[in-house]
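For consistency, the fold was encoded as tokens, which produced the following:
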Amino acid sequence: MAENLAASRVLVLNSGSSSVKYQLLDMRDASRLAVGLVERIGEQTSRLKHTCLTSGDTREHTGPIADHDAALKAVAEELARDGLGLDSPELAAIGHRVVHGGMFFTEPTVIDDEVLAEIERLIPVAPLHNPANLTGIRTAQALRPDLPQVAVFDTAFHTTMPESAARYAIDPKIADRHRIRRYGFHGTSHAYVSRQTARLLGKEPSEVNVIVLHLGNGASASAVEKGRCVDTSMGLTPLEGLVMGTRSGDVDPAVIFHLARVGDMSMDEIDTLLNKRSGLFGLCGDNDMREIRRRIDEGDEAAALAFDIYIHRLKKYIGAYYAVLGKVDAVAFTAGVGENAAPVREAAIAGLESLGLAVDPELNGVRSGESRLISPESARVAVAVVPTDEELEIATQTYALVGKNN
């Protein structure tokens, strides 16, 4: 296993409802050997895109891929074509992203029957994600039953939240019976980015307080105190919190009752509205920030209002988490929007100078794939852009666990 220096590779699998993202990494130097994506699984127009980074070759295949079993077998074939097959003695483990681990899983875990059963029991609070994660795990187990399989949970980083932050103000007996509490998501990203931000400041994670803003199509904020999450914006599900691409984020719970009673909408219709037809898309018909900014530049009022609502919610969370932490060393932007949309970063920080926050326009305008500071040298609180790397985080946690167990 990992104590054998030859077994230094980790395959990371992220199985979605109709897709599989994967990366093969060599943990001796954290280099990527291969990356790929299988999408539209179950459709006639399925597509597999595979890149071998050791040779630079990229291959694409289109055509029906019936299910996750067929998808992972196709991935295994592509890896084998590059001499990186799943039967390689250099493969130490397979690391799986699992979205919801509840309170049971607080760290990466070697998968066995008990772990699978608990992930399955959590399906009611993660109906879109955990079933797909389970399918990917079971298929990978069938392909390599002798190999350690490790689950890395999106929720694990947030299990350090105090009860005052994790509990909703409802009857505790009802809450406990139905596992209702604030779990948070994007945990692997928040963990990675908070540590990288500390390094950018030349400090240890235990020495800094960081507000992490993970802004993609899904978006979440976290307050990280000395390396431990003490609050996060997503809750029981990924619907709570910031305005997102298609999700509403925070709404008055009575909106749901109102839509059911006055709007005569079913629970399924309301679920679809809030999760798939709200957020930026619901406000202006677009959930791509680049397109929204283009429309704003052309004078589109709906796009401008959507952007203003997005920023207003984001600014509120920055202020709230500043209050939670008391002292803030850095605010870090990450994920697709956070890393690439300079106008979002500028607008989110604007007006917060009294909190020691400011953005240098010139530094903010630079496009780079590297971690960097975009605040003036004189700023009391650093503002950073830190590209997230959830796959590396999963591989790192997987390899460390396999090595420890062996």
Q: What stands out?
A: The chain has a mean pLDDT of 94. The longest strand covers residues 31-39. Residues 195 and 299 are 40 Å apart (CA to CA). The chain is about 40% helix and 20% strand.
